[in-house]
Design goal:
Elements (H helix, E strand, L loop, with lengths): L17 H4 L6 E3 L2 E2 L10 E2 L2 E3 L8 E3 L4 E8 L5 E6 L5 E10 L6 E2 L4 E5 L10 E6 L5 E2 L31 H11 L5 H14 L54 H7 L10 H16 L13
Antiparallel strand pairs: 1-4, 2-3, 4-11, 5-10, 6-7, 6-9, 7-8, 8-10, 8-11, 11-12
Helix pairs in contact: 2-5, 4-5
Length: 301
């Protein structure tokens, strides 16, 4: 299939809250492109991706990005569906829903719940379908909308919604995307500072937890965050856990209180590399006034 032109692709988020639903709503059961027709009722040229079967029934689907609702309700073989037009020229279509929670003409915010997973239309079981359409009306692979760290398909990321380890320099695109999203001027020096900081903090592994399970080594504090507090992320996909202590987590090694106070809406998974980068950039902006000379010097930040 020839590659189609895609509008701006920054700022999209995965439509399921990984902290709420976990891996069950991250399982890709069908990809974009050629396939065998499921049950003899589905297309052999699949114009989107399908997510999960059964275990995801009733889960809330969020808008990947803010926009205007163009379709809300029955839509042929897609069953109950929602289509949203975004300001970058792209559209996203969420299909086979059991319930639609928005109306045509509504303006929706990124992360707003728009529908519920179901099995309407040409469907052989409960699942959710996402299509992506460019400004010319051409369908393209929805994975192109998300940075690699958000791909929950096991090819580019762990099914927990976290990310796989890679060389720190390979996070350059996510750093630039994060700077653009936060309105930070992008320069080569700033990008390189962030890459060096990633090397210092985690070596490029977004699943790292400071000290590791059972370790008494914690350079921040030894005290629990609060009595009865339970870490919203641990264990990571590799099994690392802070054991409910105020230890640093993820690619940018932020303690829970710092990450939570700097995380951006819809980007609240500390083991997701892009979420971690966004929170770190926000922290640098707030704590250092955007002075990146404090970053990438081989020490903490």
């Amino acid at each position: 299939m020839p590659k189609v032109s895609v509008g701006g692709k920054t700022g999209y988020i995965w439509p399921f809250d990984v902290n709420q639903y976990g891996p069950v709503c991250q399982t890709i059961t069908d990809y974009f492109g050629q396939r065998e027709s499921p049950g003899g009722i589905g297309s052999t040229n699949h114009q989107g991706i399908d997510v999960s079967w059964g275990g995801c029934t009733g889960a809330e689907i969020r808008a990947c990005k803010a926009g205007t609702v163009e379709i809300a309700g029955g839509y042929g073989g897609y069953g109950n569906a929602v289509r949203i037009a975004h300001d970058d020229g792209n559209q996203t279509l969420y299909a086979h829903c059991s319930e639609v929670l928005v109306s045509v003409g509504d303006t929706v915010k990124q992360g707003q719940v728009i529908s519920i997973v179901g099995s309407t239309g040409n469907s052989t079981g409960p699942h959710w379908h996402l299509s992506a359409i460019n400004s010319n009306g051409e369908l393209f692979d929805p994975f192109e909308l998300f940075p690699p760290s958000q791909h929950p398909d096991g090819k580019a990321a762990e099914s927990s919604g976290g990310s796989i380890a890679k060389d720190p320099s390979e996070y350059q695109d996510e750093i630039i995307q994060g700077m653009n999203e936060l309105g930070i001027e992008v320069t080569e020096d700033k990008v390189q500072c962030m890459i060096r900081q990633i090397a210092t903090e985690s070596g490029g592994d977004p699943n790292v937890v400071q000290g590791g399970p059972g370790s008494s080594v914690d350079i921040n504090t030894f005290a629990p965050v609060a009595d009865g507090w339970t870490c919203p992320w641990c264990p990571s996909s590799t099994g690392a856990s802070c054991e409910n202590y105020n230890r640093a987590h993820g690619l940018m090694q932020m303690i829970p209180t710092t990450f939570i106070s700097n995380a951006q809406p819809g980007h609240d998974n500390v083991f997701n590399s892009y979420d971690s980068i966004l929170a770190a950039l926000n922290y640098i902006n707030r704590h250092y006034g955007g002075d990146f000379t404090q970053i990438g010097n081989g020490t903490g930040y």
